[in-house]
Amino acid sequence: MLAFVGVMPWTFIAFDSSLFHPIFKSFCHQLPERSLFFFDTQMVVCSRCAGIYSGIALGAITPSLGFMKRFGYATVWTALSIALLDYILQNFFLHSMNHASRMITGAMAGWAVTALLFSSIEISVNSQQGYGEN
Amino acid sequence: MNEAINHSRRFSRLFKHILLGSVFSGVLSCFPFIGFLNCLFCILNMIGIIFALWMYLRANPDDTIATGESVEFGALSGAGGGIIFAAVSLLFYFDKFREGIEEGIANNPSAEAVEMLANNPAMVDILIGVSLLFIVFLFSAFGLLGAFLGMKLFFQKRIRQT
Asked: ipTM of this predicted complex?
């Protein structure tokens, strides 16, 4: 489900994404200056959201990682903080709008949350199996 | 089989708060002045669901919630919130929604697609229906992530270690 949601905005590029703008209107401001364009058509979400969705898709297909089990909590806080910092810097302070930083920080946040989710669920399933065996 | 029955019995204790989460998430997302906050990782949807989770945990101080349960809680509440949001959009913002799709058709770079859609006015209604289904799906997915994040970040001590 999450992998599907993650690739959804990218899939719509192939199907004339202009038709699907109303779907994502509630989830993204869709400002043209903050969005990516493919084949002269604006993507259905801005570049930060595009990064978040990509991160969600990547997190959903990433096999469970050992370090997420140990440092997942810190990873999520770090990724969310970096994304928030980039948002604040871009909007209020230092640098101008930059698609690369928006996408990378968005992807990190999306990936961290989803990867932690799948690692946690695996931990639960494994410990439940262990509980059953005992 | 027994495990499935036990699971659904245990899960049913959350049902009332799942409905509350749906209402909070749907109603918060529909507010015209704060609705734009959903642009931030669907935050209103998540806040509504996390608030319902907090209410449940507050009402049941001795209970704990497993990670899987919180994920199901979020997915169901999110779907409910999406249905409320879609229904309100249909009732109050239908024209705006339709305009958005028609604008999309008009701006479409493919002349064939524009012609096909112009010849079939019902296609716009079908597109609206499909769009609303996608909205429910997206609400459900973000609700799932919201409930999981809420448990991990704010109610860590109340996660049941199965």
From this structure: 0.78
